[in-house]
Design goal:
By secondary structure, the chain is α/β, with parallel strands linked by helices. The chain has 16 helices and 18 strands. Helix 2 runs parallel beside helix 3, helix 5 crosses helix 16 and helix 9 crosses helix 11. The radius of gyration is 25 Å and the shape is globular.
């Protein structure tokens, strides 16, 4: 994978109220670190040993220590009641994502609930209250009080959230536009990008074409072509186009290298029609899939918020994602033959997710290099080559998207489901998706809240982490939607229908 994925290093700082035994926080912190490293390893965790934070001076010392040790995420651990001022100042002055959790009581024996009682259950209430007073963002788990083992699991849940937040704060979206005609659905007001600390570099398709032409004869093309041949194997049905595709891939990789600027991570929103094919002589779908597999998500059709969504999913899952049209219904003959009675989904809970050929080969059941059939209906076939086609591999998925509305309001959705092991009988990168209560989700979220037809797909169930990421970065709770179960009515749902 290309070095385009944040690596979190979580500093754990224990805090203590000065009227409680400091040893409670010391020993509980040690037990927490031991539980975490035993289960999850030592690579992404750091135990701050300098002090137990009881005061503002201790807070400064702890900040200096975790900064010196390259921590980019913080866990504030209440080993006992905790100092509400110093602990929230710790979160305020730390430049990165922060989580709070607290120690449960350990035993009632040998004075455990006398000298050994920490009252962190109570202290978490004061901590959360003071965080709100100071307008400080922090991740607080669903039930933030636990044993060492339970708090270790909470920190592990925090890790993908931290990666996504760190990534967004160091991200540049590179776009090549403008959007194709009749693609107003993928509008991208940039105000919310800046609100999320994301930079954007908007370029012309002509800038990209110039850079592509300058890469003609690049000595690296031969090696890239060989790598493409190896990846495609028997699916290499358009060998005549590989040299141009390799030239384009090198163009994009060099653009990322030269235009990253002070940012650490990049995602791309690229142009792919209508003039792209006739001028470049191919479609870029396969190259988009290869960069996405490298860890540089590429959204087609200049979908800037689609690219942003893909990057978030890459951070959370540490894996390739894809961007698909929420495209077409599943015909009843396929449903009746291959789905009904075999899977617990109604026909209106299934649909086909499709794009021309941008999904990574590792996420397809099989793949072939082909031409873009829709474009070839009105253009010479030879300029429409370059799609990677095949049925998407079956398994769990999360369909999600972060979007700014036309009036620059931020909203998101998350829905978990699966790709069914059912042949699509179609073309492109495509799969039969099943999401519980999709019919209602489609009407009362996707349509009602004006989401575009592109959705990002993470391969696995990551709804819990994605939901928390959207909360952390400031999406209003009422605007983080999900596929509500039967009996849980949407606000816009007719109660008499």
């Amino acid at each position: 994978m290309f070095d385009n994925l944040p690596k979190e290093k979580i500093g754990v700082v224990a805090v203590s109220r000065d009227c409680f035994p400091e040893s409670l926080s010391v020993n509980r912190r040690k037990a927490l670190i031991e539980a975490y490293t035993k289960k999850y390893g030592t690579e992404n965790i750091y135990e701050c040993p300098i002090c137990i934070v009881e005061s503002e001076i201790h807070m400064v010392q702890a900040l200096e220590d975790i900064k010196k040790n390259d921590c980019n995420a913080l866990v504030v651990y209440l080993g006992n009641f905790g100092p509400e001022i110093a602990e929230t100042l710790l979160a305020k002055h730390f430049d990165g994502p922060v989580m709070f959790c607290a120690a449960a009581e350990e035993t009632s024996e040998n004075g455990g609930l006398v000298q050994g009682r920490g009252d962190a259950y109570c202290g978490m209430l004061n901590a959360s209250y003071n965080l709100k007073l100071r307008n400080i963002k922090a991740y607080i788990p669903e039930y933030p009080v636990g044993t060492a083992e339970e708090c270790a699991d909470m920190i592990n849940d925090f890790a993908p959230i931290a990666r996504a937040v760190i990534g967004l704060r160091n991200l540049k979206v590179i776009s090549f536009g403008p959007r194709p005609l009749n693609f107003l659905a993928c509008n991208a007001p940039i105000k919310q990008l800046y609100n999320l600390d994301v930079e954007i570099e908007e370029n012309s398709e002509l800038d990209l074409f110039e850079a592509f032409n300058k890469h003609a004869g690049d000595p690296r093309i031969t090696e890239t072509v060989e790598d493409m041949k190896k990846e495609l194997g028997e699916g290499n049905k358009k060998p005549e186009i590989l040299e141009k595709l390799a030239q384009y891939e090198l163009t994009l990789l060099d653009w990322v290298r030269d235009h990253k600027g002070y940012r650490k991570y990049v995602t791309i929103a690229g142009k792919c029609w209508p003039a792209f094919q006739t001028q470049f002589g191919f479609v870029p779908c396969y190259v988009n899939s290869r960069l996405t597999k490298m860890g540089i998500p590429v959204a087609c059709e200049v979908d800037i918020y689609g690219a942003l969504s893909e990057f978030i999913g890459t951070c959370v899952s540490k894996d390739a994602v894809t961007l698909l049209d929420i495209n077409n219904t599943v015909p009843y003959d396929i449903y009746n033959k291959d789905i009904e009675g075999k899977f617990d989904y109604k026909s209106n809970e299934t649909f086909m997710g499709f794009h021309c050929g941008n999904t990574a080969s590792t996420k397809l059941s099989f793949c072939e290099m082909r031409n873009q059939m829709i474009m070839a209906r009105s253009l010479p076939v030879e300029v429409t080559n370059g799609t990677l086609e095949g049925d998407i591999a079956p398994g769990d998925i999360t369909f999600y998207r972060l979007q700014s509305t036309a009036d620059a309001k931020i909203r998101a959705y998350v829905a978990q489901g699966e790709v069914l092991p059912v042949a699509t009988r179609s073309f492109g990168s495509i799969g039969i998706f099943a999401i519980p209560e999709m019919k209602r989700f489609y009407r009362h979220v996707l349509i009602e809240k004006n989401f575009p037809h592109h959705g990002a797909v993470a391969f696995g169930h990551y709804g819990k982490s994605l939901y928390e990421v959207f909360k952390y970065i400031g999406v209003p709770l009422e605007d983080i939607d999900f596929n509500q179960p039967a009996g849980m009515r949407y606000k816009s749902e007719n109660p008499f229908a």
